[in-house]
Amino acid sequence: MRCCFNNYKNEIYDTLIVSSVSEIMSSSDIVTITIDSKKTAKDVANIIIKMKVGSVIVIDSKMQPLGIITQHDIIRRICLENKSAARVQVEDLMSSPLITIMSYDSIDTASRIMAKYRIKHLVVLEEDNRIAGLLSVTDITKKLAKILLDDYKRHRSLHFAIDLS
Predict the structure, then answer these.
(1) What's the predicted TM-score (pTM) here?
(2) Which long-range contacts (CB under 8 A, 24 or more apart) does 119-124 make?
(3) What are the residue boundaries of the structural domains of the chain, listed by start?
(4) Contacts for 41 with CB less than 8 Å, ≥ 6 apart
(5) CA distance 143 to 123
(6) How far is CA 126 from the centre of its chain?
(7) What topology does CATH give the domain 2-164?
(8) Planar angle of CA 48, 52, 54, nearest 5 degrees
(9) Tens digits of per-residue pLDDT, 51-80?
């Protein structure tokens, strides 16, 4: 049994190595704000709620990503420090420097970066540093769930075929 489990683990790992971040990242629900927009933490919280996203990417006037603001940042830097959300500016709230990954990097690489820096969101960049998308722990979890379900169905159908013999 242990041998089969190790082979199964290797199949999952191999899939994560050959699958690129661009295959599973979210590219449709990217929300950005410019650093010079004079937005406050309250504005960002309203954007996160209204747009139903977990984070907002802070960009400069040339559309280059500078930082990210997550729900966790708002809780940690506003609520827990008992600050007024209307008085804290975006540049004081955002996590920076921004940790990014390239769209062609593997999902395994992304998960290792997320674990190393203990983050849940990675901004995905194209080769010219344009934002291609956003990768979250949820995106990776969905990919793993799909791999597991596909493998389960494949093994189940093989088991069924063997029973028919």
Answers:
(1) 0.79
(2) 120/54, 120/70, 120/72, 121/54, 121/55, 121/68, 121/70, 122/21, 123/57, 123/65, 123/68, 123/98, 123/99, 124/21, 124/22, 124/25, 124/100
(3) 2-164
(4) 69, 74, 77, 78, 83, 85, 86, 88, 89, 90, 93
(5) 18
(6) 15
(7) CBS-domain (3.10.580)
(8) 60
(9) 999 999 999 999 999 999 999 999 999 999
